[in-house]
Amino acid sequence: MKDEIVDVTIIGGGPTGLFSTFYAGMRQMSVRLIDSLPELGGQLTELYPDKYIYDVGGFPKILAKDLVSNLVTQAQYAEPDLHLGETVQSYERKDDHFVLKTDQGEYLTRTILITAGVGAFQPRKIGLDNEADFEGISLQYAVRDLEKFRDQDVVVLGGGDSALDWALMLQELAKSVTLVHRRNRFTAHETSVQQVMDSPVEVKTSLNVTEIKGENGQIDELVLTAKDGTEEVIKADQLIVNFGNISSLGPLKEWGLELEKNSIKVNAHMETNILGIFAAGDITTFEGKVKLIATGFGEAPVAISYAKSFYDPKSRLQPKHSTSVFKQD
Ligand SMILES: Cc1cc2nc3c(=O)[nH]c(=O)nc-3n(C[C@H](O)[C@H](O)[C@H](O)COP(=O)(O)OP(=O)(O)OC[C@H]3O[C@@H](n4cnc5c(N)ncnc54)[C@H](O)[C@@H]3O)c2cc1C
Fold first, then answer.
1. Which residue owns the Cα nearest ligand 1 atom 20?
2. Measured in angstroms, how far is the CA atom of residue 94 from the centroid of ligand 1?
3. Whose CA, among 51, 87, 213, 223, lies 20 to 30 Å from 312?
Protein backbone atom coordinates (compact mmCIF):
# COMPACT_ATOMS: atom_id res chain seq x y z
CA MET A 1 0.00 0.00 0.00
CA LYS A 2 2.91 2.32 0.79
CA ASP A 3 4.00 2.36 -2.87
CA GLU A 4 0.56 3.19 -4.15
CA ILE A 5 -0.07 6.86 -4.89
CA VAL A 6 -3.40 7.82 -3.34
CA ASP A 7 -5.40 10.83 -4.50
CA VAL A 8 -5.53 12.41 -1.06
CA THR A 9 -3.88 11.77 2.28
CA ILE A 10 -5.77 13.15 5.24
CA ILE A 11 -3.74 14.02 8.34
CA GLY A 12 -6.00 13.77 11.40
CA GLY A 13 -8.93 11.47 12.11
CA GLY A 14 -11.11 13.87 14.10
CA PRO A 15 -14.63 14.74 12.91
CA THR A 16 -13.32 16.89 10.04
CA GLY A 17 -10.86 14.23 8.83
CA LEU A 18 -13.47 11.48 9.09
CA PHE A 19 -16.09 13.43 7.16
CA SER A 20 -13.44 14.43 4.60
CA THR A 21 -12.61 10.74 4.19
CA PHE A 22 -16.21 9.91 3.39
CA TYR A 23 -16.45 12.85 1.01
CA ALA A 24 -13.28 11.83 -0.82
CA GLY A 25 -14.82 8.39 -1.27
CA MET A 26 -18.01 9.93 -2.58
CA ARG A 27 -15.92 11.86 -5.09
CA GLN A 28 -14.30 8.55 -6.09
CA MET A 29 -10.90 9.49 -4.75
CA SER A 30 -8.56 6.98 -3.16
CA VAL A 31 -7.79 8.07 0.37
CA ARG A 32 -5.33 7.44 3.15
CA LEU A 33 -6.12 8.57 6.70
CA ILE A 34 -3.37 8.96 9.30
CA ASP A 35 -3.74 9.84 13.00
CA SER A 36 -1.17 9.91 15.75
CA LEU A 37 -3.70 8.68 18.31
CA PRO A 38 -4.57 5.00 18.63
CA GLU A 39 -8.28 5.70 18.09
CA LEU A 40 -10.30 7.76 15.64
CA GLY A 41 -12.42 10.75 16.71
CA GLY A 42 -9.88 13.47 17.62
CA GLN A 43 -10.93 15.69 20.50
CA LEU A 44 -14.31 13.95 20.82
CA THR A 45 -12.69 10.61 21.64
CA GLU A 46 -9.75 12.01 23.53
CA LEU A 47 -11.39 14.71 25.62
CA TYR A 48 -15.14 14.26 25.97
CA PRO A 49 -16.48 10.92 24.66
CA ASP A 50 -19.30 10.78 27.23
CA LYS A 51 -20.51 14.35 26.81
CA TYR A 52 -23.61 15.24 24.83
CA ILE A 53 -23.20 17.54 21.85
CA TYR A 54 -26.21 19.69 20.99
CA ASP A 55 -25.05 21.80 18.05
CA VAL A 56 -24.50 19.39 15.18
CA GLY A 57 -27.20 19.78 12.55
CA GLY A 58 -29.73 16.95 12.50
CA PHE A 59 -28.84 15.69 15.97
CA PRO A 60 -30.82 17.43 18.73
CA LYS A 61 -28.48 15.69 21.19
CA ILE A 62 -25.77 13.10 20.61
CA LEU A 63 -22.97 11.63 22.73
CA ALA A 64 -19.55 12.55 21.33
CA LYS A 65 -18.60 8.86 21.11
CA ASP A 66 -21.81 8.06 19.19
CA LEU A 67 -21.13 10.87 16.71
CA VAL A 68 -17.64 9.43 16.20
CA SER A 69 -19.06 5.95 15.69
CA ASN A 70 -21.47 7.32 13.02
CA LEU A 71 -18.64 9.22 11.35
CA VAL A 72 -16.44 6.11 11.28
CA THR A 73 -19.27 4.08 9.70
CA GLN A 74 -19.76 6.82 7.11
CA ALA A 75 -15.99 7.12 6.42
CA GLN A 76 -15.70 3.37 5.82
CA TYR A 77 -17.54 3.90 2.53
CA ALA A 78 -14.28 5.37 1.18
CA GLU A 79 -12.34 2.22 2.18
CA PRO A 80 -9.45 4.37 3.44
CA ASP A 81 -5.95 3.06 3.92
CA LEU A 82 -6.01 3.70 7.67
CA HIS A 83 -2.93 4.31 9.81
CA LEU A 84 -3.46 4.88 13.53
CA GLY A 85 -0.78 5.59 16.10
CA GLU A 86 1.36 7.15 13.38
CA THR A 87 2.49 10.79 13.38
CA VAL A 88 3.09 12.71 10.17
CA GLN A 89 6.46 14.43 10.25
CA SER A 90 7.46 15.93 6.90
CA TYR A 91 6.84 15.94 3.19
CA GLU A 92 8.83 16.09 0.00
CA ARG A 93 7.47 17.15 -3.35
CA LYS A 94 8.20 14.93 -6.37
CA ASP A 95 7.06 15.65 -9.95
CA ASP A 96 3.31 15.13 -9.66
CA HIS A 97 2.99 13.88 -6.10
CA PHE A 98 4.20 14.21 -2.54
CA VAL A 99 6.15 11.77 -0.40
CA LEU A 100 4.70 12.04 3.09
CA LYS A 101 6.94 10.89 5.92
CA THR A 102 5.62 9.63 9.23
CA ASP A 103 7.46 8.23 12.24
CA GLN A 104 6.85 4.80 10.72
CA GLY A 105 7.13 5.08 6.97
CA GLU A 106 6.79 6.99 3.72
CA TYR A 107 3.63 7.30 1.63
CA LEU A 108 2.91 8.64 -1.83
CA THR A 109 0.00 10.97 -2.40
CA ARG A 110 -1.24 13.41 -5.04
CA THR A 111 -2.65 15.90 -2.52
CA ILE A 112 -2.57 16.43 1.25
CA LEU A 113 -5.44 17.55 3.43
CA ILE A 114 -4.46 18.65 6.94
CA THR A 115 -7.27 18.19 9.45
CA ALA A 116 -4.95 18.12 12.45
CA GLY A 117 -7.25 20.06 14.82
CA VAL A 118 -5.29 21.61 17.61
CA GLY A 119 -2.29 19.60 16.51
CA ALA A 120 -0.95 16.63 18.35
CA PHE A 121 -2.27 17.40 21.81
CA GLN A 122 -1.21 16.35 25.25
CA PRO A 123 -2.87 16.90 28.59
CA ARG A 124 -1.32 19.48 30.91
CA LYS A 125 0.12 17.56 33.87
CA ILE A 126 0.51 18.27 37.59
CA GLY A 127 4.28 18.11 37.23
CA LEU A 128 5.07 15.63 40.01
CA ASP A 129 7.96 13.19 39.59
CA ASN A 130 5.92 10.02 40.14
CA GLU A 131 2.82 11.17 38.17
CA ALA A 132 3.55 8.82 35.26
CA ASP A 133 3.55 5.78 37.59
CA PHE A 134 -0.21 6.16 38.08
CA GLU A 135 -1.29 7.32 34.61
CA GLY A 136 -4.04 5.23 33.05
CA ILE A 137 -4.50 3.16 36.23
CA SER A 138 -5.64 5.54 38.95
CA LEU A 139 -4.76 8.89 37.38
CA GLN A 140 -6.70 10.02 34.31
CA TYR A 141 -6.59 13.14 32.17
CA ALA A 142 -10.02 12.46 30.65
CA VAL A 143 -13.01 10.37 31.63
CA ARG A 144 -13.41 7.54 29.12
CA ASP A 145 -15.08 4.75 31.05
CA LEU A 146 -17.53 5.94 33.69
CA GLU A 147 -17.63 2.49 35.31
CA LYS A 148 -14.03 2.91 36.43
CA PHE A 149 -15.25 5.44 38.98
CA ARG A 150 -18.19 3.52 40.41
CA ASP A 151 -18.01 3.29 44.24
CA GLN A 152 -14.59 4.96 44.24
CA ASP A 153 -13.25 7.96 46.15
CA VAL A 154 -12.66 10.32 43.24
CA VAL A 155 -10.67 13.54 43.30
CA VAL A 156 -11.04 15.97 40.41
CA LEU A 157 -8.41 18.68 39.92
CA GLY A 158 -9.23 21.88 38.07
CA GLY A 159 -11.54 24.85 38.05
CA GLY A 160 -12.83 24.97 34.48
CA ASP A 161 -16.04 23.75 32.90
CA SER A 162 -14.79 20.23 32.21
CA ALA A 163 -13.56 19.70 35.77
CA LEU A 164 -16.88 20.82 37.24
CA ASP A 165 -18.91 18.84 34.70
CA TRP A 166 -17.01 15.65 35.52
CA ALA A 167 -17.35 16.26 39.26
CA LEU A 168 -21.12 16.66 38.88
CA MET A 169 -21.50 13.67 36.59
CA LEU A 170 -19.34 11.35 38.73
CA GLN A 171 -20.95 12.17 42.06
CA GLU A 172 -23.95 10.13 40.90
CA LEU A 173 -21.96 6.88 40.80
CA ALA A 174 -18.78 7.44 42.82
CA LYS A 175 -18.52 6.80 46.56
CA SER A 176 -17.32 10.37 47.01
CA VAL A 177 -16.15 13.21 44.77
CA THR A 178 -13.79 15.96 45.92
CA LEU A 179 -13.07 18.90 43.66
CA VAL A 180 -9.69 20.52 44.31
CA HIS A 181 -8.78 23.84 42.72
CA ARG A 182 -5.56 25.77 43.19
CA ARG A 183 -7.36 29.13 43.14
CA ASN A 184 -10.33 30.31 45.19
CA ARG A 185 -12.33 31.32 42.09
CA PHE A 186 -13.52 29.02 39.31
CA THR A 187 -13.29 29.78 35.62
CA ALA A 188 -16.26 27.48 34.94
CA HIS A 189 -19.66 28.89 34.06
CA GLU A 190 -21.40 30.32 37.12
CA THR A 191 -24.39 27.95 36.79
CA SER A 192 -22.00 24.95 36.95
CA VAL A 193 -20.31 26.46 40.01
CA GLN A 194 -23.70 26.87 41.70
CA GLN A 195 -24.70 23.30 40.79
CA VAL A 196 -21.49 21.95 42.32
CA MET A 197 -21.98 24.01 45.48
CA ASP A 198 -25.52 22.63 45.80
CA SER A 199 -24.37 19.03 45.20
CA PRO A 200 -22.70 16.46 47.51
CA VAL A 201 -19.33 17.24 45.84
CA GLU A 202 -16.81 18.37 48.45
CA VAL A 203 -15.02 21.51 47.27
CA LYS A 204 -11.50 22.43 48.36
CA THR A 205 -9.91 25.62 47.03
CA SER A 206 -6.52 27.39 47.18
CA LEU A 207 -4.75 24.04 47.36
CA ASN A 208 -2.19 22.28 45.15
CA VAL A 209 -1.50 18.55 44.97
CA THR A 210 2.12 18.31 46.07
CA GLU A 211 2.47 14.57 46.57
CA ILE A 212 0.80 11.40 45.33
CA LYS A 213 1.07 8.42 47.68
CA GLY A 214 0.44 4.89 46.50
CA GLU A 215 2.08 1.88 44.92
CA ASN A 216 1.85 -0.35 41.84
CA GLY A 217 -0.01 2.35 39.95
CA GLN A 218 -2.75 2.61 42.57
CA ILE A 219 -3.14 5.96 44.32
CA ASP A 220 -3.88 5.79 48.01
CA GLU A 221 -3.62 9.37 49.28
CA LEU A 222 -2.96 12.86 48.01
CA VAL A 223 -1.11 15.58 49.89
CA LEU A 224 -2.68 18.99 49.34
CA THR A 225 -0.66 22.07 50.23
CA ALA A 226 -1.86 25.63 50.76
CA LYS A 227 0.22 28.73 49.94
CA ASP A 228 1.21 29.13 53.59
CA GLY A 229 2.62 25.57 53.55
CA THR A 230 -0.21 23.97 55.53
CA GLU A 231 -0.73 20.37 54.44
CA GLU A 232 -3.83 18.22 54.26
CA VAL A 233 -3.93 14.54 53.31
CA ILE A 234 -7.00 13.14 51.53
CA LYS A 235 -7.99 9.65 50.43
CA ALA A 236 -8.25 9.01 46.68
CA ASP A 237 -8.82 5.88 44.58
CA GLN A 238 -9.05 7.77 41.31
CA LEU A 239 -7.59 11.16 40.40
CA ILE A 240 -8.81 13.13 37.38
CA VAL A 241 -6.45 15.91 36.32
CA ASN A 242 -8.34 18.48 34.31
CA PHE A 243 -5.88 21.29 33.64
CA GLY A 244 -6.62 21.49 29.92
CA ASN A 245 -4.32 20.54 27.08
CA ILE A 246 -1.13 21.75 25.56
CA SER A 247 -1.40 21.46 21.83
CA SER A 248 1.30 21.87 19.32
CA LEU A 249 1.50 21.77 15.58
CA GLY A 250 4.76 19.92 16.18
CA PRO A 251 6.45 18.81 12.97
CA LEU A 252 3.87 20.62 10.76
CA LYS A 253 5.38 23.92 11.96
CA GLU A 254 8.45 23.24 9.85
CA TRP A 255 6.52 22.79 6.57
CA GLY A 256 6.64 26.43 5.51
CA LEU A 257 2.87 26.82 5.90
CA GLU A 258 1.58 30.31 6.49
CA LEU A 259 0.50 30.35 10.12
CA GLU A 260 -1.44 32.72 12.34
CA LYS A 261 -1.44 31.97 16.06
CA ASN A 262 -0.74 28.26 15.52
CA SER A 263 -3.50 27.92 12.90
CA ILE A 264 -2.95 27.40 9.18
CA LYS A 265 -4.11 30.23 6.94
CA VAL A 266 -6.36 29.04 4.09
CA ASN A 267 -8.25 30.78 1.30
CA ALA A 268 -11.90 30.22 0.35
CA HIS A 269 -10.89 26.98 -1.44
CA MET A 270 -9.29 25.67 1.78
CA GLU A 271 -5.92 25.90 0.02
CA THR A 272 -2.83 26.62 2.08
CA ASN A 273 0.04 28.67 0.69
CA ILE A 274 1.64 25.40 -0.52
CA LEU A 275 0.22 24.12 -3.81
CA GLY A 276 -1.51 20.77 -3.39
CA ILE A 277 -1.77 21.05 0.39
CA PHE A 278 -5.21 21.84 1.78
CA ALA A 279 -6.48 22.24 5.34
CA ALA A 280 -9.88 22.13 7.09
CA GLY A 281 -11.40 22.09 10.57
CA ASP A 282 -10.00 23.50 13.80
CA ILE A 283 -6.49 23.77 12.37
CA THR A 284 -7.47 26.50 9.89
CA THR A 285 -7.93 30.22 10.15
CA PHE A 286 -9.54 32.71 7.79
CA GLU A 287 -11.66 35.80 8.18
CA GLY A 288 -14.84 34.87 9.99
CA LYS A 289 -13.58 31.45 11.14
CA VAL A 290 -15.41 29.77 14.01
CA LYS A 291 -14.00 26.54 15.43
CA LEU A 292 -16.85 24.07 15.67
CA ILE A 293 -17.60 20.54 14.51
CA ALA A 294 -20.26 21.96 12.18
CA THR A 295 -17.81 24.30 10.44
CA GLY A 296 -15.33 21.44 9.93
CA PHE A 297 -18.15 19.52 8.25
CA GLY A 298 -18.75 22.50 5.94
CA GLU A 299 -15.09 22.94 5.08
CA ALA A 300 -14.49 19.25 4.28
CA PRO A 301 -16.43 19.10 0.95
CA VAL A 302 -14.83 22.36 -0.20
CA ALA A 303 -11.31 21.11 0.56
CA ILE A 304 -11.93 17.71 -1.04
CA SER A 305 -13.51 19.17 -4.19
CA TYR A 306 -10.63 21.58 -4.72
CA ALA A 307 -8.10 18.82 -3.96
CA LYS A 308 -9.72 16.71 -6.67
CA SER A 309 -9.64 19.52 -9.19
CA PHE A 310 -5.95 20.13 -8.29
CA TYR A 311 -4.78 16.76 -9.69
CA ASP A 312 -7.70 16.31 -12.10
CA PRO A 313 -8.50 19.80 -13.47
CA LYS A 314 -11.28 18.40 -15.69
CA SER A 315 -13.28 17.13 -12.72
CA ARG A 316 -16.44 18.98 -11.73
CA LEU A 317 -15.89 21.32 -8.83
CA GLN A 318 -19.51 21.25 -7.77
CA PRO A 319 -20.11 17.77 -6.37
CA LYS A 320 -23.16 15.75 -7.32
CA HIS A 321 -25.68 15.55 -4.50
CA SER A 322 -25.39 12.39 -2.45
CA THR A 323 -29.02 11.70 -3.29
CA SER A 324 -27.90 11.29 -6.91
CA VAL A 325 -24.65 9.44 -6.20
CA PHE A 326 -26.17 6.70 -4.06
CA LYS A 327 -28.91 4.23 -4.86
CA GLN A 328 -32.17 5.13 -3.12
CA ASP A 329 -33.07 1.96 -1.26
C1 LIG B 1 -14.45 19.71 26.09
C2 LIG B 1 -14.82 20.12 24.67
C3 LIG B 1 -16.14 20.22 24.31
C4 LIG B 1 -16.49 20.58 23.01
N5 LIG B 1 -17.82 20.68 22.69
C6 LIG B 1 -18.17 21.03 21.42
C7 LIG B 1 -19.53 21.15 21.05
O8 LIG B 1 -20.44 20.98 21.87
N9 LIG B 1 -19.83 21.50 19.75
C10 LIG B 1 -18.84 21.74 18.81
O11 LIG B 1 -19.16 22.02 17.66
N12 LIG B 1 -17.53 21.64 19.16
C13 LIG B 1 -17.17 21.30 20.43
N14 LIG B 1 -15.85 21.22 20.76
C15 LIG B 1 -14.84 21.53 19.72
C16 LIG B 1 -14.69 20.32 18.76
O17 LIG B 1 -14.29 19.17 19.49
C18 LIG B 1 -13.68 20.67 17.69
O19 LIG B 1 -14.16 21.76 16.94
C20 LIG B 1 -13.48 19.46 16.74
O21 LIG B 1 -12.96 18.36 17.45
C22 LIG B 1 -12.52 19.82 15.61
O23 LIG B 1 -12.40 18.69 14.80
P24 LIG B 1 -11.11 18.47 13.87
O25 LIG B 1 -11.34 17.17 13.18
O26 LIG B 1 -10.86 19.68 13.06
O27 LIG B 1 -9.88 18.32 14.89
P28 LIG B 1 -9.61 17.31 16.11
O29 LIG B 1 -10.86 16.77 16.69
O30 LIG B 1 -8.67 18.05 17.03
O31 LIG B 1 -8.80 16.09 15.44
C32 LIG B 1 -7.50 16.32 14.94
C33 LIG B 1 -6.76 15.00 14.87
O34 LIG B 1 -5.51 15.20 14.20
C35 LIG B 1 -4.52 14.37 14.77
N36 LIG B 1 -3.17 14.91 14.46
C37 LIG B 1 -2.68 16.15 14.79
N38 LIG B 1 -1.41 16.28 14.32
C39 LIG B 1 -1.11 15.10 13.69
C40 LIG B 1 0.04 14.62 13.01
N41 LIG B 1 1.14 15.38 12.84
N42 LIG B 1 0.02 13.35 12.51
C43 LIG B 1 -1.09 12.55 12.66
N44 LIG B 1 -2.21 12.98 13.29
C45 LIG B 1 -2.22 14.24 13.79
C46 LIG B 1 -4.85 14.43 16.26
O47 LIG B 1 -4.33 13.28 16.93
C48 LIG B 1 -6.40 14.43 16.24
O49 LIG B 1 -6.93 13.12 16.37
C50 LIG B 1 -15.48 20.86 22.05
C51 LIG B 1 -14.13 20.76 22.42
C52 LIG B 1 -13.79 20.40 23.72
C53 LIG B 1 -12.33 20.31 24.09
1. 293
2. 31
3. 87
